[in-house]
What does this fold into?
Amino acid sequence: MGSTFGSFEIGRRALHAQQKGAQVTGQNIANANTEGYSRQLVLMKALVPPAAPGVETPPGYGVAISDIRRIKSEFYGDQIMKSTTSQNYWKRVRETLDGIEIIFQEPEETGINTALNEFFDAWQDLSVNPESHAVRLSLREQAEALTGLVRDIYGRLDELKFDVRKELQATLTQINTLAAEIADLNKKITYLQALGQKSNELLDQRDLCLQELSKHVNIRVNEKVGGSLEVLAGGCILLHDDRHFDLEISEEGGKLAVCNEIGAELSIREGDGAIAGLLDSYNTIFPRYQGALNELVFNLVQKVNDLHKNGYGLDGSTTGIDFFTDIEEQNANTAALHFSISDAIKDDLNKIAAASQADHPGDGSNALKIAQLREKLVMGGPPGDETTTFHDYFRGVMADLGVEGREAERMSLAMERVMESLQEKQESISGVSLDDEMLNLVQYQHAYNAAARFLNVLDEMLGVLFSEIGS
It folds into this structure.
């Protein structure tokens, strides 16, 4: 290789190396705006001839491509996935809380607190005019409005809860699709590595799938020797090499969980991506606010009915009937769903027990007692030790809803800013700079021209040599 002919091999290798450098630069430029693409860097090494006794060592064997390296920070990549997971959890929780706020419509005039006030106002009016048919009719209408509003809100909460379940199923379908795609990429990557090759583009595709997967669930990624990945979600295997394990919903006692196809339940905690937000919404947030509404209704029905049954109707007879349809203790957890006026009150306004005495139809003292429930401590503790009124209890529930919503929004925005900052740092490392690539292209072009000139000089030298020999 120290001969003139051996120098041609040095030139040939130089041409190929610089040409490959230009090709990689062109690939970087072409993908400057491609999502998930990591710029590539051509690494070259000088080929050193082996040393042999008594043999003159040539200057070298030329150049070879040692690697085409994908420039990417694994640290920032992992941090981006973690912040993406957390941000999507808080984003999904915020969407649930926003939806609940819209349904409750507080503190708007169409909300429950306003309807509850108008209901007690109607009892107050009846205590002043207990014999008025118009006042009794107004009371029944206000009660109908209150019960109808509560049932409507409860029903819409149920619908929103059902939508969350459907969204969870759709999210699991996306996770399963991404897992299958990553498993397929694993297969291709390990096959190439077995052949001593690699594809940086396939690695970029796999990283992009992992980042998309991290939006939905908290994952842990383990890279194996052959280049394939093992992915764990919620402490359970999601995919291994080219095999993936589909996720599905399981339900027990009205609560949802997520299992893989071999029956292992994922351990989903707060902050573990969109499915954690959906599970928390279904299992915790909806039961909390529906439970608060049920508790309000159950106590209101019991307190009003207890007073009403001891009063007297307009005809002077004790009614002994409930104003609202009675709700038994075992049905307290669905009280809002069954909140309605009793049939007796619907059929006969004279049955409204405004009086406390049988022979005083103009007595409105019992109606006044019911109206005064508005200011009494009737909730928030065990019987006999209540700490709050109906209005204050419900206002507290709505205040908690507002605080939770603001906290979820704050956390979502905070994690989004963290994620954007990390993405900027990752982009500064992995992103394609067109200015830098153009400089590289010029460098490879000049090196290629120089290698071509070198071969041309060798050709001229051989031409002179053959000419002298021929003469």
User: Anything to note?
Assistant: The longest helix spans residues 133-194. Strands lie at 40-47, 62-70, 219-223, 229-233, 236-240, 243-244, 247-252, 255-260. The chain has two domains: 4-71+433-470, 80-416. The longest strand covers residues 62-70.
